[in-house]
């Protein structure tokens, strides 16, 4: 009698394209909500009579609540099913967007942004977990390729879309629409997710039947508190002592997770994050590579937007259009890279990091030459364009490599850990890059000055040229910090490549 072997899992599941649509539309909305608001801040300031502190929390409240719940949300999806938590996250994000667009004062807006961030934090880890469980082989690479495409577009297209909306609708309805545009897409996404996603498998484990205890609430609270203490000093200067508290809380969280792991056989309760996860080299190296890339990217585009508008005198739309070619490169290349990452993923990470460093170096030259008046403005987009292919290589490959050796049962928690690292590095990288920019600008004596017409036309032109040069020099200083962050990505990629090359595992198997 011949042995019966289980049928191989299909790489592309039935209805796979519908599943990807349901997953990636909310992902795009949640990431676009980070970048689209940058262009709208001046309109929000005028429309709600908001202070600079209020405006700071429009961005910070979203980022903070987004980062705090990621790991716990991923673990909850692993335990109780990702579909209901994903839908709940979409609905919470939609309600927060609606309230933000209808806000009557800064307090209402900032509280609504916190709610929106919580929704993003709930839905994002489920996306990775569902892809990891549903897709296999090359189909998984393609899915993560599309994931990378959406991440790139969400970050890069936000300023362009914000500029278009504000130009078409004016300041008041323009800034409100940057939030309200999420509402119809959110409602539609929730309906389609309910219809197209598979219901969660019936939970059979004793662990999951223990309800909240299985989520490891102590570990969740310790990690959330540590993340808050890590991020706040980079959002609110003068709170640096919180970094010491973050170190203590992280140590306490690690001790608790180790304790939960050691007692698991007896108690039946596993830790929220299995400490063994960090002993998976592909997970650790790729998490570092992706996090430092996302620490560098927002600072690069923030500096570009500031210099374009305040230093060179161009519009917000022009600033957004400068990043559009890189976004298009990400959109075109990511699916192809995703389909080949199973063979060349480690090489793609190294190549992407090198290309990104080259693009930033070209950008430094372009800022300097444009400020001097030697190059036309469009050359900035040309010089920064290689960052698009670099981002496609890095984001797509790192995402696949991060999750490659993670068991499906831990995919949600692992995705939460990886995305928490990304949120923390995004906040700290943005603060470091913009801090270096403004410090250099202050040292030049320019500050926020954009010109003085009291000396006549010739004096105004000379002053505008001096301002442009000061902004260009400050951009060069800031981009050195960007290159430092990207260098960490390169080192992590090289170390992972060497490890795989020595172990003979450059070809990934599902």
UniProtKB/TrEMBL annotation:
Record localization: Cell membrane
Top-rank taxon: Bacteria
| Keywords, in A-Z order | Membrane, Transmembrane, Transmembrane helix
Cross-referenced InterPro entries: MFS, MFS_dom, MFS_trans_sf
From the record, give the transmembrane residue ranges: 20-43, 55-73, 85-104, 110-131, 143-167, 179-197, 218-234, 240-256, 277-301, 313-336, 348-371, 377-395, 424-443, 478-498
Please list which residues make up the signal peptide: none
Keyword Ligase recorded: no
Descriptive protein name? MFS transporter
Species source reads Citricoccus zhacaiensis
